[in-house]
Amino acid sequence: MISVAWGHRLLLLLPFLLTAVLWGWTALDNRAAGVSRPPGFFARNGWPVGIYLLLAAGVWLVVLVALPQLSMIDMSFRHKLPINQIGGPRDTYTLENYRYFLFGSTTSTSSWNVVHLRAFAMTIISSLLITALNFIICYPIAYYLARIARGAQLRLLLVLLIAPFWVNDILRAFAFRIVFSEKGLINTALLGVGWIAQPIDFIGFNIALFAGLIYAYTLMMVFPLYNALDSVEAAQIEAARDLGAPWWHIHLFIVMPAAKAGIASGCTLVFMLATGALAAPLVLGGPSTLWFTPIVYDRFYQVFNWPQGAAYAFVLLAGCIALVITALRLLRLSLADIAR
């Protein structure tokens, strides 16, 4: 059995191993694509600025990202113990928290933990659907901003996009609940014009939840798309129009492939944020809504089993990362492409 001390050493080495793997992956992708080596980091920025950027980014990544995640991973393999027993002989590594996620018991494997597994699967599937709908809505907006709007019109549209997000996320979620409730604005309007005979349960059907999450992450999709579409050469679009290509053919086979990296970046941001959403599922979810993050929250603050909550959180994180990396490989994109 691995001791706690050796476990801590392995966890501290993990960020360096992951950095080496990602660096090697990017180098191999660039070599396979025949990308010439650009000027070095310090050659582009100078030594003083380069050292400052490395230190600032390093401290931020280590203190605010790596160490909390490593602490969560370490905790997920521990027993739930009283404070006075932490670090004692009973404080050993175990897989019981992951066994509970799969089977609903720390000792028996006779039946699956159907509720939690279904919530995990539904969260992933729903987040994929939210990402797809978000892209469908945001692509025309980003294309108009990047290729058509100019000057004062562009600035006005950007302000109109950004201004609503000055409101707190929780307040926006409650506003959506009021709008989509049985006596809310939408049902009142539909009843008033006679299109429906009785109110629609938008919250029970998760329509309010989907609408709230799609709206909450609009900017996360619009700006990467805007950046990518703005760099598409206009000559390619004009050549396709001169050759008589229909508008859908231009977007599907010319614009979207050229903006593939921006599309992947926006979709990755929206998917990861949607799977980790907490306030919106709690406020906009119906009685039968299954979302995984409230279950993770309950492990921490209702059951008070922090090791189990850490295991659930790590399962969600690992599943999302694996899905994103698989999608990038299928699209033949690297992490460096979506980070541009």
Task: Kindly describe this structure.
The protein has two domains: 1-94, no CATH class; 114-338, MetI-like fold (Orthogonal Bundle), CATH 1.10.3720. Helix content is 72%, strand content 0%. It contains 17 helices and no strands. Helix 1 (4-33) crosses helix 3 (47-76), helix 4 packs across helix 16 (306-330) and helix 13 runs antiparallel to helix 16.
Q: Name the poorly predicted regions.
A: none
Q: Which architecture of the largest domain per CATH?
A: Orthogonal Bundle
The whole-number mean of residue pLDDT values reads 86
- State the helical fraction: over 70%
Major sheet: size, sense and barrel closure? none
Count of domains? 2
CA-atom Rg in angstroms: 24 Å
* CATH level 4 superfamily of the largest domain: MetI-like
* Total DSSP helices: 17
Q: What is the structural class?
A: mainly alpha
Classified by CATH, the class of the largest domain is Mainly Alpha
The H-and-E topology, N to C, reads as HHHHHHHHHHHHHHHHH
Instruction: Tell me how many strands there are.
Output: 0
Instruction: Estimate what percentage of residues fall within beta strands.
Output: under 5%
What is the CA-CA span between the terminal residues? 43 Å
CATH topology of the largest domain: MetI-like fold
Q: How does the overall form come out from the CA principal axes? A: globular
